[in-house]
Amino acid sequence: MLLVLSEEQKAHLGFLPRAGGAAVGELGRLAVELLRRGAAPRACEAAARKLNIDVDTVQHGVEGLSYLLTESSKLMISEIDFQESIQVLGFSDELNQLLLQLYLDNRKEIRSILSELAPKLPSYHSLEWRLDVQLASRSLRQQIKPAVTLKLHLNQNEDQTAQVLQTDPSTLLHLIQQLEQALGEMKTNHCRRIVRNMK
Question: Among 38, 139, 149, 187, which residue's Cβ finds the most Cβ atoms within 10 Å?
Fold first, then answer.
């Protein structure tokens, strides 16, 4: 799977050949720090002074490298695919090897950082349900009005929460059909490939 870079990202990475090999290592370190701790303007200013490059250029370069490393790590791109993805940038073989080594050295760490940043979603614990049928009321003697009440228990960060939902049977049947369709779609090759790349 190849990584597709936009024109803006290509422009951000375009100054790397002029910066040199030592600068790529420094900018790569800053890109990983950006993922770990967030934006660090002072570190970018210090790197700009050290490399005699404009601060905005350094910031754009760090953002471009951060995007390249993050997306490549997220998709678990192989070495060959990574090299082919950065081939469109027109860099020298030496610079391509430096970027590849930077990717290989930081791939696992970036994936662990991304997994920590992922939101913790609630998970299913149990479900209680009840079917209520109103057969008559004071104004209508013969009426059938069914309602399904669901109590959904969820786990989130070792805490249990409950959500109470009420619906009519036709809406519930439609919901069941939609969920079954989604489960059936998860069995397709395309979805399996996506899930495998997300892990």
Answer: 149
- What is the C-alpha to C-alpha distance for residues 172 and 125, in angstroms, rounded to an integer? 20
Q: Which residue has the tokens 């200013």?
A: 45
| CA distances in angstroms from 167 to 114, 144, 151, 173, 175, listed in the order given | 38, 15, 12, 10, 10
Nearest to 1 by CA among 89, 75, 105: 75
Helix 93-117 / helix 21-37 crossing angle, nearest 10 deg: 10
Span 18-54, pLDDT tens digits:
777 777 778 888 888 888 887 777 887 887 788 777 8
Whether the full predicted model's pTM is greater than 0.90, yes or no, is no
Query: Which pair of tokens denotes residue 111?
Result: 């994936």
- Max intra-chain CA distance, the chain: 87
